[in-house]
Every structure is written in C-alpha cells, then in structure tokens.
Design goal:
183 residues, mainly alpha, 2 domains, 10 helices, 69% helix, elongated
Length: 183
C-alpha cells in the first residue's frame, strides 16, 4: 500500500511540487515523501479521531461528498503540517501543495481499492494501514454491520457491541471499544 501511495503522489506532484518555485528542486523527493507520509498519517488520524465511519464509507465507495470532504480536509491539514515541519515552507505554500495533491491522490487510491482488476491496493490494506489492524477483514465486517445499506454510527456501535462480530480485543469491535472508552 505504501508503495502504491508513493507512486500516486509522484504521478500527481508535477505543478504542485516539481514545478513549484517555492520548493527547491533538491527538496522535491523530500516533499513527495512528506506528502505521502502526511496522507498516511492523516488517514490514521481519521481512523483514530472519530472519522472511522467516514473513512470506511469512502474506502468502500459509499461515502457521500460530505463524508469524503471531511476525510480529505483532515488529511490535507496533516499533509500541510508535515510539509511545514519537514521542509520549513510557509503555511500558504504547504496548503497549496496539499490542496492540489491530496484530493486527487485520495480519489485515485480509493478507485484502485475498488477496482477488482487492480491488485496494487485493496480496501482492507488501506483500512489496515489507517488503523494499525493489518490482516483484519474490514470489508466483511463493514458489510455485515450495514443493516440499511449504509454504514453509520449505529452500525459501528452494533459491531462494537458484538452484533455480527465478536467484540473482543481484535477487529473493528476492539478498536472501536478503544475509541469510545471501552476495553
């Protein structure tokens, strides 16, 4: 997943990074790595900071504009911070890079995850990287949790409380238990 993410960042970095006079050419690779790690860190913040449902819906291709916008905005802010810290560039330049690269990269990453003919990344690997729960079958859990065809907080709570999935220390239930003060 990390290699796919970095490749997408490289493909989308033209004007925003490579041709940007505010980023010296010798810092182009560092800037792309800062964007890539900022995207991953932003996805992790979303998963751990109350945006898990939005992220899961987005990965599944079911998120509406509002949900996708919330995830994208959070990730952009993380990328902006990462660029400022690692490269010492201004907040304005960092935000222009983040707003030019992040939405396109996230869109392409989610499309790859949903494409059955593209095995470079899948929804489970994105969720695993975002939550630290590698090897968990997120898509099966999410689909069994969705009683009404949508994934919302009541569905997540039902899974956390053991409906359709054991709520032990692993999987979605265990992680959500940590988010909501349980286990």
């Amino acid at each position: 997943m990390l290699e796919t993410l970095m490749n997408l960042v490289r493909q989308q970095s033209g004007d925003a990074i490579i041709n940007n006079p505010a980023i010296p050419n010798q810092q182009n690779e560092d800037a792309m790595q800062a964007v890539s790690s900022g995207i991953l860190g932003g996805l992790q913040q979303q998963a751990q900071g109350g945006g898990l449902g939005n992220l899961l819906s987005m990965v599944m291709g079911q998120g509406g504009q509002e949900q996708q916008g919330a995830v994208t905005q959070g990730v952009q802010q993380n990328v902006q911070q990462n660029l400022m810290e690692r490269l010492g560039i201004s907040p304005q330049v960092a935000m222009s890079v983040a707003s030019a690269v992040v939405p396109i990269v996230l869109n392409k990453l989610m499309n790859k995850a949903q494409d059955p003919n593209d095995n470079s990344v899948d929804a489970n690997s994105i969720m695993g990287a975002a939550t630290g729960q590698q090897g968990t079958d997120w898509m099966s859990m999410a689909q069994s949790a969705m009683a009404d065809g949508r994934l919302d907080m009541s569905d997540l709570m039902r899974v956390m409380n053991g409906g359709g999935q054991q709520s032990g220390s692993g999987g979605l239930g265990g992680m959500l238990g940590g988010l909501f003060g349980g286990r």
